[in-house]
Structure formats: structure tokens, C-alpha cells
User: Fold this.
Amino acid sequence: MTGPHPSRPHTGRRRNDAAREAILDATFELLAGGHTAGVTIDAIAEAAAVGRQTIYRWWPSKGAVVAEALARQGRRLAPVRDSGSAAADLTSFLTDSFVALQDPGMVHALRELAAAAQQDEHAAQVLQDFTAQRRAELRALLARGQHRGEFDAAADLDMLVEMAYGVLWYRALISRDPLDSGAAGRLSAQILIAARKVQE
Amino acid sequence: MTGPHPSRPHTGRRRNDAAREAILDATFELLAGGHTAGVTIDAIAEAAAVGRQTIYRWWPSKGAVVAEALARQGRRLAPVRDSGSAAADLTSFLTDSFVALQDPGMVHALRELAAAAQQDEHAAQVLQDFTAQRRAELRALLARGQHRGEFDAAADLDMLVEMAYGVLWYRALISRDPLDSGAAGRLSAQILIAARKVQE
Amino acid sequence: MTGPHPSRPHTGRRRNDAAREAILDATFELLAGGHTAGVTIDAIAEAAAVGRQTIYRWWPSKGAVVAEALARQGRRLAPVRDSGSAAADLTSFLTDSFVALQDPGMVHALRELAAAAQQDEHAAQVLQDFTAQRRAELRALLARGQHRGEFDAAADLDMLVEMAYGVLWYRALISRDPLDSGAAGRLSAQILIAARKVQE
Amino acid sequence: MTGPHPSRPHTGRRRNDAAREAILDATFELLAGGHTAGVTIDAIAEAAAVGRQTIYRWWPSKGAVVAEALARQGRRLAPVRDSGSAAADLTSFLTDSFVALQDPGMVHALRELAAAAQQDEHAAQVLQDFTAQRRAELRALLARGQHRGEFDAAADLDMLVEMAYGVLWYRALISRDPLDSGAAGRLSAQILIAARKVQE
DNA sequence: AGTTAATCGAGACGGTACGTCAGGTCTTGGC
DNA sequence: GCCAAGACCTGACGTACCGTCTCGATTAACT
Assistant:
């Protein structure tokens, strides 16, 4: 029986946040690494230089770890900007989001997460919360445009947001069509049309 | 491991199609049954009163069976109609599609399929083919409207189709929001706006 | 997966006896190998080039495997002979038995078995059966002497047998004193005294 | 893990010998409790209202604790008496020893100890020392008889002692035959025969 | 009608990953 | 400064499925 990993000392009875970070980092790296075989708890534990039990102590299942690791990473990409033009902001936000997913690792991670969420209630919950937050950000972007008069006051912003993210996830999970800036532009264009004009 | 020699005519016992049907039926029932634990090959074989090897003889993996079982079922729901009004046809098609997924078994099956497709290349292929075909049907519906002059000649039909199916799958897999007729109507409305008016 | 239908004979693949042999051989080798760490199921499976499940399919616990492996080996050593003199037979039997346990591997194996039996009901049962059989053999040896008039007709053969095996196991498990031929001779002598003369 | 035991507060910087006693008491109680699952360090620590580290501070391993707890208890049972007749003393000593082990808890504890000793060098050492001491006591009893002329001057006292304890442990660990006073009497009788008469 | 060979249900096989349990080490904070 | 509490790493456990490999029985086409 050996002691803890040499470079990361134990912290005692309190939770060791370094271990938590190491687990989430290792999980994301494995996810993005595109390893054909699904990411396993063993692999995460080994990559994080952590005991398996430490993972199970803080997360109820593998899916929950995967979900949290990816949600954490997702928040760092595709920030919402405010340039004064909601139309421009929408386009650049969608372009950023799509382009970030051109990294094969990111799509792969997204797919692993989606797969985990279908089989794991905890992962589903984390995914639901994360995407709800992302939708709220995009909705706020559109609401700004609506206030400024760029968009119709009666525009169904919630549905427009769903359409935007719907296409993103549909391409990532189902059709596997490329998530390039061209697609982002065309998607953005359709949403803007619908946002500007509710009735003839 | 190889098949019969090509120069020698086939003499052995022929494939039992009843077994094939039983496998697909049992698979779909298990999918729709909403069993918490993921559908397993063992469960399918037992439910179909079939040996495991019989499944592996005809499908390359579990995902492929799941995908085929579900695709077969999917084709029976939500037929495309032609009433003369593409707008009306779109709305009723989307409503039919959404409402069919209000059956908890159907959504559950869809989720299992999506999960399988993320980890199984065969399932991914079947899912891609199936959804491409469904998109083609919806696109044809919109194209009819375009030819009749209901929609703008320059409308980006492909993207509109993606937006429609995107919302459907997004609700089914990610947000788990209800797939009710209200949502179908709102979605239909946004698509019609974008289809009718490309530019001011 | 349930068992075969009672009205239909067994049709599945038969048990692979080579695997059974390999498991028992590997177990005994590991036992005798004197590996400090207790023999594990993983180690047995790997040494036997067998899946872990194959072990669990046929034995209820690790202890049961260990017990069977050792009992099988034990039967091959220290055969009971019949030279015409029960006294000589007893001495040579005890000497053979002790000397066989001078092999460090054999004692080690015996200790592992005893340890397993204290914690595992299955192993305890196998050990009990095995030792009962060994006692019966030794008792038969003494009974021959009794019939021939070498020993007192009222001698308590059962207790004498227990005393013989008691010393053997006591040295192996508790005192760890050497199991040499000297000890065997002294033990044999005491038993012969008690066997010959019940009362003054 | 519950809170600290209410009746034994921390003692601060000074070493708490009450903790040591509590650990040995709790260990023996758990051993004798006959809990199916092997006694664990966690269970001992909890029962003794002690931190795990406090156990490891004073004992090198679980086996050592178990061994010491049982040896301490063993010394309190089956005292050697001196009635003037070594034969009578032997019989009553063996009867006392056997009967003490009719308590299921005691046999269970003995088995746990034996199991621990096979896998733990520390426990083996404690067991060896303890049993050596017990043998010495019994040998002294027999030596008194020898000096008084009750037994043959050439009697092999060491082997006789081994035979007595051998039967005790053999019944406890291997055959699981009852350790009743009848068996003790029969065993005592055989030993006395051998002790009295070395040769015709 | 008999021969031939591929199919069938059944289930044992070698594996991989799971989630749990226990052992022994180390740190924190209370007393 | 001792001690409870408990987080930590390690590693074995027994289970669940996977996909493959026999078995003996069945059955359809070709003799």
C-alpha cells in the first residue's frame, strides 16, 4: 500500500479540490482525445492519478462526471458578445459555437455526453441544466435585439433559440453534417428572418 | 468463418425470416418498454426466443439491431400528406411527428437509438440514412409549396428542414421539454415565416 | 437467461474440462508458489488463461476452488500401505505425510486453505469432507492392526487418528515447528503406545 | 462512523490507555459476536469509538490486533490447577479448555485468529508466542506428574502436549467436531496411557 | 428417399468495465 | 500534542454484458 500521488498531497478530512480538478480535467481530456473505446472510470482514475473510490465518493455515476467535465469546458467557449447589433451578435455567436465544435475532440465529447445522458439520470440532469443556461444566454441576446427594435416585439424568442441549438445538436449527434461557418451563417439568416417579421 | 464457396450452389438451411421479425419486434418492444436498464442482447434474444448467435449472424452489433428496429417503426408514423396547402401540410406533419413522440415508449426508444449511435458506427450509419430519408420527405413537402408559389423561391429549404428536425431531436434528447402540438404549431409558424419571406 | 426447459434435454455447449483442469492446476501452482499476497481470483484466472466468470460459474467462491485444488493434490501424496505390520505402516504413513509437507509450497498451500475455510462456508465443507476421508484411511490402517491383534481391541482408534492429524495441522498452522521425519517418528511412537495398551 | 463515545472523552496530549483497552475489548466482542463478515478495522474502530489511526499507532496490522485481543482473553480461561494428581489436573485442564470453546463465539474467534495468522506475519507471531506459552503451562503440569512418579521418566512430554493441543485446534479449525467434555476425557485418557507407559 | 450443409436454440468461453468494500496512510481541526 | 473523523490510493471482489465458439437438433435444397 503506497501513499498518495507524490505531486498532489492529501489535504485531510476536507475534500481535496485538487483531486476534483484533476478528475474533471482528465475526464475532459479523455473525452476530447477521441479514444474509440468509451471513456472508463478506470481510465479517468488512472489519468487523474486518483483512486476509483474518490470518483464514486463525489459523483453518483460515470455519466455525471462526464457531464460536469464537459459543461465546465463548454462554458469557456463561445461567449455571448454585445456589439450593439443583435443580428451581428447572433451570427458571431452561432459561428463561434459551430466552429468550436469543428474540433473533432469536442464533437466526440458532446456525443459521449449525449450518450451518457440517455442512460444515466444524473448525467441527463446535468445536461439539462447546462443547456438551459446556454439557452438563457442566447435568449438574452435576442431579447436585447427585441428591445432595441431590431426584432419584432411578438417574436417567439424561445422557439428561435431552440431552433438554433436544435440544428447544432442535430448536426453533432444525428446527421453528422459539418458544423462549419457556412452552416452557421445560413442558420443565423433563417433565425433573423423569423425574428424580424412575425406577420406580413 | 467464410461463407459457402462461390462456385458451389447453396444447399444449407435457409434463413428463418420469422426469427428476424421476432428479433426486431422484441427489440422495439424492449426499447419502448422503457426498461431503465439499457436493452441488452441477452434480453432481446430471450424476448424473441432466439439464440444470441442468430442475432449476431444478421446484424453486426447491438446498435444496428436497435437502429433497424426503430427505423422500421418510425416509417409507420407521421406520413407526409398533400392537401394542396404546403403550410397546412407542414403544420400537420410536424404535429403528427411531435404527438407520436408523446408516447413515452417512443421517446425512450429514440433516446436509446441516439445513445447507441454515438458508440456504434453501424447504428450511426442506419440512423444517418433513416434521418436523411425523413429529411428528404419533409424537403419535398416544402418544395411543393415553393413550386406553387406559397414560399419564396430563394428559401433555404435544407436549413429549414434541419431546423424542424433539430427542434424535435433537441426536445427528445437534450431539454426533454414536451413534444406537444403547441410546440409543433409554434415551430411550424417560425418555419413558415422564414419560408415565405427571404428578404424584406 | 433461464436454464433449459425441463422437458427438453440440454443442448448448449458442454463444460470445457480443459478449463477446469487449468483452473485447478493454476490454483495449486499459485498456492504452492508461496506468493506473499493471498492468491486472488484474478491471478488464478490469468494463470489459467481463463475468464473470471468461468471460475465463478463452477465454484461458489474462491475458497471452494482453493479447497478443491488442494484436496485433489493431497490425494496424490502419502498413500496408505499394507506391509503386514500396522505399526510399520503407521510410521511410514506419518513420515510420508510429514515429509510431503516439508515442501514450503505445500505448507503454504495448506495454510491458505485453512484460512479460506475459516471465512468461507464452501471451503470449510470441502476441507471437512477431504479430511474426513483422510481420517478414514488412517483409521482403516489402525483397524487392520487391531484385527490382527497388534493393537488392543478396546483402543480408541478415532481419537488416535485425531491426535495424529491434530499434530500435523498444529505444526503446519499454529506452532510452525518443522514437519520432519523425527517428529513423525515420535508422534508415531506415542500413538502406538496408546494403541497397544489401554489398561495396565 | 459515529461521534466520539460520550463516556470516554479525549484526554488531550497524554496517551489514552483506555483507548487501547477499548480497542481490544471491541475486537474480542466482534470476534466472539460471530458476525459472518470478517471483522474489519472500521468495525473495530467504530465499536471502540476510536479513530482508525489510533489502532495503527499501536498495532502493525489487523491480524496483530485480533491476535492480541484473543490471546488476552485466552489467558483468562482454563487455568492450570495443581491438585496433587497430575492425571486429574490434566483431565480437568483439557475439559476446561474444550468446554470454554463450546461457546460459539470463542470458536469463531479462534477461527478468525487462525485465518489472520495465515495471512499476516504479525498475527502469526503473536499466535506462535501465545500457544508456546500455553504449551509450556501444560508441559509443566505433565512434568510435575513425571517428578512425582505418576508418569514414565522417559515420556515424550513435548509430543504429548502437542497431541493435546493438536486435537483441540483440529476440532476447532478443521473437522469442526464438537469440543465437548466427552472428547476431552477420551483425549486425556490416551495421553495418560502414553505418559505412563513408554515400553511394555 | 437420402445426403448434405447451413441454420437454429442453448449456453460455455475469454474478456472488459462496473460499482463496492476493505486495508493502511495521511491531514485537519477539536479538545 | 493526542485523538476522532474521514479523505485518500490501492487493489480484490462478484456481477453484467459483450461478441465468439461449440454443441446437438432441425430443416430445406440438391442428389
In short: The two ends of chain A are 75 Å apart (CA to CA). Chain A has a mean pLDDT of 89.
